[in-house]
Amino acid sequence: MTQPTPATVCVVVPVWGAERTLDRCVQSILTQRLTGTLACVLVDDGSPDRCGELCDGYAARDPRVTVIHKEDGGVSSARNAGLAACDAEYVVFLDSDDALRPGALQAALDAQAADPGAFVLWRYTDDPADPAPAGPGAAPAPPAALARLWLDCLIAMPWNKLYRGELVRQLRFNEAYTLGEDLQFVLDYIALLGRRQPGFHYTVVQSPLTFYDCSREDGTLSTRYHPETCEIWPEHFAKLNAAVLAAGAPEADLRPLYRAELRVFAEGAADILRRDPAPAPERRRRAAAALRHPWLADLLGRMRAGRCYSPYYLPLRWRSLRLLWRLAEAARTGSPLYGKLDWAGYYLLGGRWLRS
């Protein structure tokens, strides 16, 4: 019996609670026109609505669709199940409330063909009526640009990338994480690609190829409260920092990277004080414990050595919950107090640290 020929591109879609958006997502995949063949794996992750039934309907009508039904194990578990079932030259991930824009897959393949040694990334849009056409025009970026690519919101997610099937099938999303596991997966892929092809580089398709839906009624992972933020993100950031330093990121990229990481951590600690359901004394205890994290001490040391200023530097160095709270609340509410505290901290440090 002859083995079926692997598809050119397989799109893996974890599906849960997406009855409202699933048709938009799947149709955006199946209507793609590309040189080569297309496959789609829909993973019904124990969805409580009609998503499983809808997935079966797509498979019954289109032989390119494969459906996996499994118990709810979370998005990483669903992606892993889909990845294990996909046999293709390239793999693309897509969330069930998002969509590929017309011509997206061909644009990604064209960018890959034009630069065979590159890891192809692309921009995305949150405007469903975005008029920008999907085109293969791409800009190269060296390995040392990893920090800048993360700052430009091109690294942390798995769904704006063209993965080589033979490589990505060797990896799995870490199902132990409930936050930031996408970044870990992407960094693992970059490390594997670097071992297989030393000196590889990136190419970034300039037109948005994915529509990212920000209108989710139950909030996205970036807007929900996560009590483990100050435990999990230091692990992810430590891995990111090791990767960008190994890639030779310039100081001009390291400074904004460190500021961004510090802000994520600071806002996570402030969120414990603001949104944790525990009584106030326990919230303060948890926030104070977060400020003693060894990763934070290391990051503050790097920032001090590079005279890299952030308005969160002194509140976190002093481990002052009161000052951290006031600064984070001022930032969250758009209060003029934020600017006053920002410049006060800057001049307390002598007014000579780098703000850019």
The termini sit apart by 63 Å
CATH architectural arrangement of the largest domain: Alpha-Beta Complex
Oligomer: single chain
Query: Roughly how much helix do the residues carry, as a percent range?
Result: 40-55%
Reported for the largest beta sheet, the result is:
9 strands, mixed
The number of domains is: 2
Order of helices and strands: EHEHEHEEHEEHEHHEHHHHHHH
What would you say this structure looks like, in words?
This protein is an alpha/beta fold and 356 residues long. The protein folds into two domains: 7-211, Spore Coat Polysaccharide Biosynthesis Protein SpsA, Chain A (Alpha-Beta Complex), CATH 3.90.550.10; 229-348, no CATH class. 46% of the residues lie in helices and 16% in strands. The chain is built from 14 helices and nine strands. The chain has helices spanning 22-30, 51-61, 75-85, 104-114, 146-151, 165-168, 181-196, 229-246, 251-275, 280-290, 294-305, 313-317, 321-333, 337-348; strands at residues 7-15, 38-45, 65-70, 88-93, 99-100, 118-125, 138-141, 161-164, 201-211. Strands 1, 2, 3, 4, 5, 6, 7, 8 and 9 form a nine-stranded mixed β-sheet that branches. Helix 8 (229-246) packs antiparallel against helix 9 (251-275), helix 9 (251-275) packs antiparallel against helix 11 (294-305) and helix 13 (321-333) packs across helix 14. The protein starts with 6 loop residues before the first strand and ends in an 8-residue tail after the last helix.
